[in-house]
Design a protein that fits this description.
Helices cover 39% and strands 14% of the residues. The protein has helices at residues 3-6, 9-15, 28-46, 51-60, 86-90, 94-102, 119-127, 150-166, 187-200, 217-232, 237-267, 279-291, 319-327, 441-452, and strands at residues 76-77, 132-135, 145-148, 176-179, 273-278, 304-308, 334-338, 347-348, 355-356, 361-366, 382-390, 399-409, 421-422, 427-428.
Length: 453
């Protein structure tokens, strides 16, 4: 148990349930008073540490959490983690970005001294202070940045391993790990995957990943900035040439990564595999494997897959059947979880195809605006916007409003687990006709920018 959780005993009790064999089998109504007490305990500890949380509490006139409704004004829109002005990032205003990050962090973010050679270098220098950033790719412009402590990184790895075991996989150092595609290099990703690699890998066998340049958030930012300058007509000829060359190199890396992943899978077909990646790239890998003349009969019957979602990948309706038939996989040997960068925990998928929320993470179902609670109900399903309060987090406030439209049941699942669960049909409000409009996002973004200026 970390020092922070020692100071939050009600939260520590719930987080400690991760050591139970099945923490997802709990009665929501019985546990709710303990969750509310832990939420209040964490709020009281964080409100003096996090400037944005203090602002949200003052705006919402919240002094303590005594019910689920009290948490709603305290939630951060997911956009809060990229609420800095775009110009600060493009123009490398590191002191101003540091002040912005300080408003959403528990531990003070001190100025980084000396020369900074881009975003990746700045993030690395922040790690020297104990700030380990979880970042989004920023493919549309700004990247989200979420502060983690070392304890947060350790817990992220632990909750992933617990989810893997809970879904029925039993790692015994008996498999060759194969990672798909270009690997997104970040301290959080590496820390999360380390326990899994230690549990699955055959002795002396390192995980296999394509030998292509890694994706970094700084590298993505460079391309976004160049694309913006080209669109504005301000790019120099040398910058246009660099953009075109880099774009071609990245496209080649994507293709190379598919081919290398497929070749690694083929070369190790006599060994049980543990495949890591998204369904989209795995579909491309399966196509390559088929083109080389291999199919399910050529692969071991106990290989496994840690699956991400589709992320808008263009695949045919039968993509999953095609992948499973090609690589001799089954649903029972696939671990898929529901999570997001803004939270530190995983909701694993059960045998009935539903994602189960752990007891240390409060699930709040909101209406589309994000302003009103959809009351928990003892039967049936309710639909709305997903929001969470993750009590495990130390580096930041764990309360966030997502951009996801979900269906929730608080009743027992057919898999036998009694905790709240989420239907596997998860949509993005950004993909709906009206787009994603969270009522509190503008207010939050304006405050954070103002406080950091």
């Amino acid at each position: 148990m970390t020092g922070d959780l020692n100071a939050r005993p009600a939260s520590a009790k719930l987080v400690g349930l991760i050591d139970d064999q099945n923490p997802f089998d709990y009665d929501f109504w019985e546990l709710l008073p303990e969750q509310i007490a832990a939420a209040n305990e964490t709020f009281q500890a964080r409100v003096s540490q996090i400037k944005l949380l203090q602002n949200r509490a003052e705006e919402g006139k919240v002094r303590e959490v005594g019910r689920l409704h009290d948490i709603i004004p305290l939630l951060f829109a997911h956009t809060a983690y990229k609420s800095y002005p775009e110009s600060w990032l493009f123009n490398q205003k590191w002191p101003m970005l540091g002040r912005w990050l300080d408003t959403i962090s528990t531990k003070r973010v001190l100025p980084v001294e000396g020369e900074i050679k881009g975003l990746d270098h700045w993030l690395l220098r922040l790690e020297e202070q104990g700030h380990f950033m979880g970042t989004s790719s920023g493919t549309t412009g700004k990247c989200a940045m979420m502060n983690n402590t070392r304890a947060d990184l350790d817990f992220a790895g632990k909750t992933l391993m617990h989810s893997i075991r809970w879904t029925g996989l039993n790692p015994q150092n008996d498999r060759q790990i194969v990672a798909l595609g270009q690997v997104a290099m970040s301290t959080r990703n590496m820390a999360t995957g380390r326990p899994m690699a230690e549990a699955f890998s055959l002795p002396g066998k390192m995980p296999l990943a394509p030998k292509v340049p890694p994706i970094t958030v700084g590298g993505v930012l460079e391309m976004v900035l160049l694309r913006k300058k080209i669109a504005e007509g301000t790019a120099k000829p040398s910058e246009v040439a660099h953009f075109e060359s880099e774009s071609a190199a990245r496209q080649k890396s994507l293709q190379d990564s598919v081919e290398q992943s497929a070749e690694a899978i083929i070369a190790n077909r006599d060994t049980p595999l543990h495949i890591l990646g998204m369904y989209g790239p795995l579909y491309q890998v399966a196509e390559y494997v088929r083109a080389k003349g291999f199919s399910g009969k050529d692969f071991q019957p106990n290989s496994s897959f840690l699956a991400g979602g589709l992320k808008r990948a263009a695949v045919p309706p039968n993509y999953k059947e095609f992948i499973f038939e090609t690589l001799n996989l089954t649903d029972e040997r696939v671990c898929q979880t529901y999570s997001m960068q803004e939270i530190g925990s995983q909701a694993p998928r059960c045998s009935a195809g539903r994602y189960h929320v752990p007891p240390w993470m409060l699930l709040l179902l909101l209406d589309e605006s994000g302003e009103n609670l959809v009351e928990p109900q003892r039967s049936g399903e309710a639909e709305g916007r997903a929001a969470f309060l993750d009590l495990s987090l130390e580096g930041r406030w764990g309360g966030t409003i997502s951009g996801d439209k979900i269906k929730v049941s608080w009743a027992s699942c057919s898999s036998g687990n009694r905790g709240p669960s989420i239907h596997n049909d998860i949509q993005r409000y950004a993909d709906t006709e009206g787009g994603d409009k969270i009522a509190c996002s503008g207010t939050i973004d304006a405050y954070v920018r103002g406080a950091a200026s």
